[in-house]
């Protein structure tokens, strides 16, 4: 039932107005502006029906006091015996939604109050649509930033940035429809992990943010991190099947307010720094930003099975492993460092792609792509490939017999390369050396 606060210093008028509304609404009565403010704080009514001329605080002053305290438009309807149009105009200028002149009939009062309630519902519905993320029902990015700016400025609690780990794999493997289901499920898990008075929003994609009032204890953050990670894994298996092996989980970057500041933009950066540390240290956990050390303490809550899933190669193709140049260099340095531990040789092969016949349809880049595919198909799953520039490809051959291996490998490369269109216009040269030396 909707709540109405009735304010009138004339007791007879107050009781008559309450009697007209009591069957349709939950009513609260106040005989002064000061009393009305106390009742409003306690009951948070849906609208205020107030007399205009009251001693101590007028209806106008009551309206302005409440709007200043709550920083929002509060639905007001004024009751007045005045017939002065200037009085009515001033009320509307202050944001009143309607006026009713005393004495009034019950049916007229009920109709006008019902109109205000309907208008308020429509406004709140439009406001909710504008503030809400359409997929998850959480606050959207703009409304999140607005609400969190206020919360951080005046509140005490924990600001948390929350990322859904490995979400892209859901879209890649199961499609975007399943991805949307996972996002909705994750949003519901986040709701279940906080109180109704806390704030949760979606910044976009798989990025979420929350503010939990009154929390400054790492133990609680740890418990919530564990809860979220366990629930998303269980829910994902129900949606995608028990054989689902995507390492879904949550990484949380947390900063406590106000001990680390009150400015949302600055606190956001600190929470983001804490989140980055979690991402760099295995994911599926939480990090607490510490102002004292300018650093972040991280804790990982991933199970052994989740760690294995995080480390495993996703969508593994047959043939050699294709890596970025930086990752290729890391493996090269590791093999160089551990060369004494291998009974067989590790070998670096450098392929240079050369044009021997003009053709405008196939570029050097196209030829390099086709040649990389040739090498990936030719070499073993234990070998590694990377590009270096536009016409060079590097290969690491691991644990092989060099004496007889290189020549036979090059023969296979030549044979496989001839299957591609680019081989008619491009050839390759190669050089190699053992890494074990």
Describe this structure in words.
β10 and β11 form a beta hairpin. The mean pLDDT is 86. The chain is built from 14 helices and 16 strands. The chain has helices at 11-21, 33-43, 59-70, 85-93, 106-131, 141-154, 167-174, 176-193, 218-240, 264-280, 304-311, 325-337, 364-378, 402-417; strands spanning 3-7, 26-30, 47-51, 76-80, 98-101, 157-165, 199-204, 207-213, 249-257, 285-290, 295-300, 321-322, 345-355, 384-387, 392-400, 426-434. The strands form 3 sheets. It has a 6-stranded mixed beta sheet with strand order 7-8-6-9-10-11, sandwiched between helices. The protein starts with a strand and ends with a strand. With 437 residues, the chain is an alpha/beta fold.
Summarize the structure.
The protein is an alpha/beta fold.
Rg, rounded, reads 34 Å
The chain-level mean pLDDT equals: 86
Which stretches are low in confidence, meaning pLDDT under 50 for 5 or more residues running? none
As laid out across the biggest beta sheet, the strand order is 7-8-6-9-10-11
Q: In total, how many beta strands?
A: 16
Portion of residues within helices: 40-55%
Give, in order, the helices and strands.
EHEHEHEHEHHEHHEEHEHEEHEHEHEEHE
Q: Report the total helices.
A: 14
- Give a quick account of the main beta sheet: strands, pairing sense, barrel closure: 6 strands, mixed
What does the overall shape look like? elongated
Coarse structural class = alpha/beta
How many angstroms does the end-to-end distance come to? 84 Å
Strand content: 15-25%
